[in-house]
């Protein structure tokens, strides 16, 4: 399996390292043509407004919507989760608008700008290590969205079909089981496309 990491801004190298540990090939994606060569795509953390602007500039909004329409999986982490969402709480225009979730940016308060914790994630046996950095949270989910984990009663991991979203940075730890979970989603999607 070849899994791309959108490389316009943000934590790209760390995701590639985790994808490799999970037994797939990781490729930085800088041009829309490269989407043809991959089976799944990660949209990393960073700053969602900046990532959204660069995506518009380089044609990634339509290109990734088409990629997703073919059933190819997407995984958004932190800012990447905001980029996937249908609705952003502050009235900001949605970016990809693919996932039926409403999100709030920078939602964990100033005193908790950055912290690391263990999260129980549905579908993964033992708790996963997660780093939260000015993280968003999921305020509402639509039908068909499966909630995979919550932190202090706030939804922080969710899945809707071939779309996976996490508020935090799984790539900043040595724990690659969430990447493994995504690699499995990509394998399943590739099998059902045959
Ligand atoms: N606060 C950032 C945003 O709103 C996300 C932070 C992150 O990706 N670590 O886009």
TrEMBL record:
CDD domains per the record?
A: GATase1_PB
Instruction: Tell me what reaction this enzyme catalyses.
Output: L-glutamine + H2O = L-glutamate + NH4(+); aldehydo-D-ribose 5-phosphate + D-glyceraldehyde 3-phosphate + L-glutamine = pyridoxal 5'-phosphate + L-glutamate + phosphate + 3 H2O + H(+)
Q: Which GO terms describe its cellular component?
A: cytosol; glutaminase complex
Keyword Lyase listed: yes
InterPro entries from the entry?
A: Class_I_gatase-like, PdxT/SNO, PdxT/SNO_CS
Keywords of this entry: Glutamine amidotransferase, Hydrolase, Lyase, Pyridoxal phosphate
Per the Swiss-Prot or TrEMBL record, the active site comprises: 78, 169, 171
- Protein's pathway: Cofactor biosynthesis; pyridoxal 5'-phosphate biosynthesis
List each coiled-coil range.
none
Residues annotated as binding L-glutamine: 46-48, 105, 133-134
Q: Which domain of life is it from?
A: Bacteria
Query: EC no.?
Result: 4.3.3.6, 3.5.1.2
Keyword Transmembrane among record annotations:
no
Q: Name the Gene Ontology biological process terms.
A: L-glutamine catabolic process; pyridoxal phosphate biosynthetic process; pyridoxine metabolic process
Query: Which family does this protein fall into?
Result: Belongs to the glutaminase PdxT/SNO family.
Quaternary state and interactors: In the presence of PdxS, forms a dodecamer of heterodimers. Only shows activity in the heterodimer.
NCBIfam families given in the database record: PLP_synth_Pdx2 (TIGR03800)
The task this protein performs is described as:
Catalyzes the hydrolysis of glutamine to glutamate and ammonia as part of the biosynthesis of pyridoxal 5'-phosphate. The resulting ammonia molecule is channeled to the active site of PdxS.
Annotated protein name in UniProt? Pyridoxal 5'-phosphate synthase subunit PdxT
Q: Which organism is it from?
A: Paenibacillus uliginis N3/975
Q: What is the lineage of its organism?
A: Bacteria, Bacillati, Bacillota, Bacilli, Bacillales
| Name of the gene encoding the protein in the UniProt record | pdxT
């Amino acid at each position: 399996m070849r899994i791309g990491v959108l490389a316009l801004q943000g934590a790209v190298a760390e995701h590639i390292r985790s994808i490799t540990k999970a037994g797939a090939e990781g490729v930085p994606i800088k041009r829309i043509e490269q989407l043809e060569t991959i089976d799944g795509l990660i949209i990393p953390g960073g700053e969602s407004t900046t990532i959204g602007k660069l995506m518009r500039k380089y044609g990634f909004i339509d290109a990734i919507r088409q990629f997703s329409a073919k059933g190819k999986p997407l995984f958004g982490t932190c800012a990447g989760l905001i980029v996937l969402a249908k609705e952003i709480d502050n009235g900001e225009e949605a970016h990809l608008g693919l996932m039926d979730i409403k999100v709030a940016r920078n939602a964990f308060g100033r005193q908790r700008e950055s912290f690391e914790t263990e999260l129980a994630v549905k579908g993964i046996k033992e708790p996963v290590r997660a780093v939260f950095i000015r993280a968003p949270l999921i305020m509402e989910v639509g039908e068909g969205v499966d909630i995979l984990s919550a932190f202090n009663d706030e939804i922080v991991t969710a899945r809707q079909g071939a779309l996976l979203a996490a508020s935090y940075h799984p790539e900043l730890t040595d724990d690659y089981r969430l990447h493994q979970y995504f690699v499995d989603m990509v394998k399943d999607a590739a099998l059902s496309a045959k």
